[in-house]
Every structure is written in structure tokens, then in C-alpha cells.
Amino acid sequence: MEGTVTSVLLAGIATLLAYLFLFRNAERRRPLPGMPGPRGWPVVGSLFSLGELPHLRLMEMSCTYGNVYQLRLGSQYVVVVNGIRAIKESLLKQSVRFAGRPAFPSMNFTSKYVGIVFDTYDDMWKYQRKIIDSSLKPFTSGPTALEEVVTSAAVDVVNNLTNHGNCGNGKQSDPYDDLYTAVGNVTCFVLFGKRYSHDDDNFKKVLYYSKRFVAAITGKGNIVDYLPWMTFAMRKAFAKVADDLSLITRFVGEQINHHSSHRDGIGSVMDSLIRIRNDSERTEGCALKTKTDVERVLCCLFGAGYENTTSTLYYLILYMIIHPEIQYKVHEEIDRVVSRDRLPTLSDRAKLPYTDAVLQEVIRHASLAPLTVPYSTLKDTDLLGYKIPKDTPIFVNLWSANYDENEWEDPHRFNPDRFLSADGLSVKKSQVAKMVAFGMGKRRCPGEQLAQLQLFLFFAIFMHQCHFEKCEGDNPQLTSVYGLTLRPVPFRVVTKHRGPD
Ligand code: HEM
């Protein structure tokens, strides 16, 4: 009985606090005068009306409210930007005004461990972003050891996929884990200058924690951004995410300790960061002074690139089994240009325009990062005639730009030819530039070139070596689930080795 009374009292106090918090926030968060948008439900607004694939619902809403509209999500008003014109007007033409990040609880929390991506635009961000850009550059300009690492990781995947359990005349498996491990290894090489054996305990652990972190942070993980009074109910989920992030940070910290004492990993991103940190006393304004600063940057790069690159490869295999006629044309081009005697290399890329066009069309059509990380305005601003005050959270719908009917003919059709020149001999640069799968403006993905390079080489080697088919009785579809980004609903594939001729 005593316990019940205490519980009721605690519940009463929690409710009172919740309403005070909500009321206080509601006072600070008002609708933007004159900007259209749905009214939403009491208390939650449109929070639960966005569905499992919010980018689609947000694009649908733009038919009613236009390309710039406001939404109330719980106690928070946000502005949604759709379509290529409105995205360019904000992220390109007013790039600094739109470069901030909102102080959402989930972002503040994650940014303790992960740098750059959730940090707002300030001198520290600018400094660290410059360092990231320059330390990734050596991996994408000119011949690098990266090519050898990607080739060996791709060959491992081919061997694993063609050796999994039998399914009729070929081997069947869900390729996701093999791709995840391969991309993990390439990422560790770039960041730490180190490759791991697939059985390495530390490597296996960090892959496992990264996966668990993604599973925990997705779904309802950030509901507290819009309903702050839910913080109490979500504390367990947050504690789990904190555990996983601490473990990933510990792994990164161990790489730094190992590097400092053994001086290996020369040429890795970590190597550049440690050099800058060691010089920090002599460098004015250096924003990389402590081991924690270095860890935050490395954790950011580890998290930001890994999942996206793996999911793109997963999509590539799925599109190939759903479009065998396109797979056939890629096989034909690779065999004709490269021959069966050797593996494709990066220097073949310009001579493999169809293969490249298929990759670009998968990146556009899958648009696996459909919504950017939320932005925030750094000053009062105007966007296509609407006034937006400073500190307004902005959702940018990249999906809507990649499916904008004013830019792409029949955008829902999977059609690699849209990226080819009229004579079919090259990829049209103007079409690739039109795609906004890697964002735009100040926050544009710094790993774009690295991702493009890896994806092309992995894909070309897979297609040179393998024939992908769906398993008998399976009916894989191009349906996606939202994780941190989109990824296909898990599927199985029959992988046949293509042999020497
Ligand atoms: C297919 C692969 C990839 C895709 C589709 C992708 C997509 C994106 C997108 C759309 C953004 C912009 C988010 C925004 O506007 O807020 C972004 C940001 C970012 N990406 Fe990538 N990315 C990929 C691979 C990589 C790789 C390989 C790395 C690094 C090794 C990387 C590092 C980052 C970082 C650090 C940011 C944050 C930038 C900032 O906030 O200033 N990404 N990525």
C-alpha cells in the first residue's frame, strides 16, 4: 500500500514537472507567422503522422503546403525544405545562415562522443572540418594504398558469398554482414592505418557495438527532442546508447595509444590528427588540443561513413537481382573492357561508363540519406518569401531533390541511361552534380570522393567476379527501412562465381 502511494505521488510530481517543462517550451516555441503547414494534433502535433518513412510523407505534404512549410513536432516548430530550388536557395545561396545545428537533446548528448556532424557552425567546427577535408584528401588523389585494401576486401566478400550454404545451382546468403565487415576494414585502414583479421576480437567488438548503437539511436531514440518531458521514460534507451558510444570511443582511444607508442599508421587520418594535436601549442587557434578532441573527430568519421557505404553496396546487389537485364549489360561492359584475365582497377573507371552510371543511378534512386541531420538558422533570414527567425530548426529533404520532377525525367524509374552522354561513352558530369545524395553547401559530406571511389571499385569487382540472382521462392523488393539512414529490407541472394571465361 505504502509503495502504491509513493508511486502515485511520484507519478503526480513527474506529470506536473512535465507540464511545466512543456508549457515553458511552448512559450518559447511559437509558429512562424504567415508560413503554411498542417495544424497537427494537440500536444504531439505532427510527430506521429510522419510514418515509418518520413521523407515520403514530408514530400507528399509539399503538394499541399508548398516547398517551404512549417510543422509542429511536439513542442517544437520546424521548417521543412523540399525540392532542389528551395534546397539551393537555403544551403547554397545562404550557406552560412543555414549551417547551424539545433540544440536538440539527442544531438547534444551524442556530440559528447562524436564531433563535427552534430556540432554547430563556429570557429571550432570550421577548424576541425578543414582538418578532416585535408586528411581525407590523400586517399582520393592519385594512386594510393587504398586501392589494394579495397580490392582485397572485395575479394574476401566474393569468396565468402560464393562459399555460403547451397541454394540450387549457386550459393545463398544475406550479404549484409560480409559487406559490413569489408567496409569496416577499409574504414579502419583509412582512419587508423590498420587492417584487421576478421577474427580479431577488438574489431569484431567495435563492429558489434556500432551496429547496436545504430539500432538503439534509430526509431524512437530522438523523441525527446520534441517531447522533452519524455526524457524520464527514455532514460534507459539513452543509457544504452551512452554505453555503446563509450565502447566505440574506447576502441578509438586504444588505437591512439597504440599509435603514440609504436608510430605505425603513418599516413592515416589518425596520424594527421595526432601530428596536429602535438603541434597545437605552436599553432594559433588550434581546436585539436586534447586526446578527446582527436577521439571525437575519429568517432565522427567512423560513424558517418561506415553505415552509408555498406548500405549502398547492399542496395547495389539488390538492384542487380531485381534488374537482371541491367546486370547483364554491366557484365558485358566489364568483360569487354577489362577482360577475364585480371580484376578491374580504378584506372578502368573512365572506360566503364555504364558500370559507373549504374552506380550513380543506385545512389540517386536509393537516396539512402533522405533527410539531412537537422539544420538550424544562425541569423534571421528569408527563404522564398518566408521570414525564418534565428535558431529555427530546419529539416532538409534530400529525397525530394533526387525525385524532383522538374529536374529528373520520370524520377521513379530506375534508369542508369539518364547518367550517360548521348553516345554512351561517358558519364555526364552535369547529371552527377545535380544529384544531392551527399548534401550541399557548408555541410556537404566530406567523405563523398572516398565513398565514390570505394563504391565503384567494390561494385566493379563484385560484377567481374559474381552473378547475383534471387533465391528460389524469394521475392525481394526495393522497399527500405529507416535506420540512421535508409537500407533495404534484409534479403538473400544466390551468388554464382563467374569463372575465368
Ligand atoms: C555512400 C556513402 C555516403 C553518403 C550517402 C553520405 C551522405 C552524407 C550526407 C547527405 C551528409 C550531409 C548531412 C547534412 O547535410 O547535414 C553527410 C555528412 C557527413 N559525412 Fe557522409 N556520406 C557517405 C559517406 C561518408 C564517408 C565515407 C565519410 C568519411 C569517411 C563521411 C563523413 C561525413 C561527415 C563527417 C559528415 C558531416 C559533415 C558536417 O556536418 O559538417 N561520409 N554525408
TrEMBL record:
UniProt-listed SUPFAM superfamilies: Cytochrome P450
Residues in coiled coil: none
InterPro entries: Cyt_P450, Cyt_P450_CS, Cyt_P450_E_grp-I, Cyt_P450_sf
Residues that span the membrane, as ranges: 6-23
Key words, A-Z: Heme, Iron, Membrane, Metal-binding, Monooxygenase, Oxidoreductase, Transmembrane, Transmembrane helix
Gene3D superfamilies: Cytochrome P450 (1.10.630.10)
Keyword set includes Chloroplast: no
UniProt similarity note: Belongs to the cytochrome P450 family.
Protein name per the record: Cytochrome P450 1A1-like
UniProt source species: Saccoglossus kowalevskii
